[in-house]
Write a structure and sequence with these properties.
By secondary structure, this protein is mainly α. 67% of the residues lie in helices and 0% in strands.
Length: 122
Amino acid sequence: MSYGPQDPYDRRDADHYDRDYRDPYERRRRPGQVGDTVARIVRIVVSIVVLVFALHVLFVVLDANQGNGFVSFIYTLAQTFVLGLGDVFTPDDALLGVVLNYALAALIWFIVGQIIIKIIRR
């Protein structure tokens, strides 16, 4: 046992030091837990739904061919995920109505998804 000067870069006892002084909430969270996986899945699903809304708005604004299979598929998905928010705004311009309603739906999906992710990660 030596009582001489200690090496400041000696990490032999660093794990004990870090463990005692880190945030108490940090100790509960471990990477790879089920909650993190579920939160990632929720984030992916919400991102896909928001992307579907963005594509739908883009296709409507650019007057895409409704007979195309992909455009029709995106339209059907957007109608499914809009959950009654497709007619909140009813301006005279139908194009503006689509943009406003689907942007509102995307915003609500995003906010609710972030809240769910925060609840899961607690």
